[in-house]
From TrEMBL:
Organism of provenance: Chryseobacterium daecheongense
Gene3D superfamilies given in the database record: 3.40.630.30
PROSITE patterns, alphabetized: GNAT
Any one GO MF annotation of this record: acyltransferase activity, transferring groups other than amino-acyl groups
Stored SUPFAM superfamilies: Acyl-CoA N-acyltransferases (Nat) (SSF55729)
Protein name, per record: GNAT family N-acetyltransferase
């Protein structure tokens, strides 16, 4: 009888404090892992409010409780126009940024579920692919992308750093 409801929905302004708490946990986790990613004051509370205001902020909820945050941006990531390498496609795409999981939901495979939901979202809007980048040392995310069938396409430059770029065709 004990089934869990997992839902992807647009973030509301009321979610901003929990989202920022989740991002702070992720920033600290990256720091403890010795990563340079997210260690320079970005993302910050303004990033969260801007994401929500622009309609980019999404939350994955577990039985109504916010568990994962991600920014989903349609067709718009200037850094992706100059890739050292090649994208799989040049049609419409969803960009995934700022993925972070609440610690109390860590290790439950929710980021994989997030990507399932994002791929469904893309398909339901007739969007050809999902593009994502991550730091070379973000081993957890690299593993997830590999397990979800994302192809390594090359390197992009974002916020002063080199990122590994991936794409998956979903239609």
């Amino acid at each position: 009888m004990n089934s869990t409801e997992i839902t992807l929905r647009k973030a509301e302004i009321e979610d901003r404090n929990i989202i920022w708490k989740i991002l702070q946990q992720a920033i600290e986790r990256r720091r403890k892992d010795g990563s340079t990613q997210w260690q320079n004051g970005y993302p910050n509370p303004n990033t969260v409010e801007s994401d929500i205001a622009k309609g980019f902020g999404y939350v994955l909820t577990v039985d109504g409780e916010v568990a994962v945050y991600a920014a989903l941006i349609l067709n718009d990531e200037p850094a992706y126009s100059s890739i050292e390498g090649a994208w799989l496609s040049n049609g419409e795409f969803v960009v995934v940024h700022r993925v972070a999981v609440d610690e109390k939901f860590a290790g439950q495979g929710l980021v994989k579920k997030l990507f399932d939901h994002i791929e469904d979202f893309a398909r339901s809007h007739d969007i050809q692919s999902v593009k994502v980048d991550t730091n070379f040392d973000n081993l957890a995310m690299l593993k997830i992308l590999e397990s979800k069938g994302y192809s390594y396409c090359g390197e992009v430059y974002l916020s002063g750093g080199v990122r590994k770029a991936f794409e998956k065709i979903v239609i």
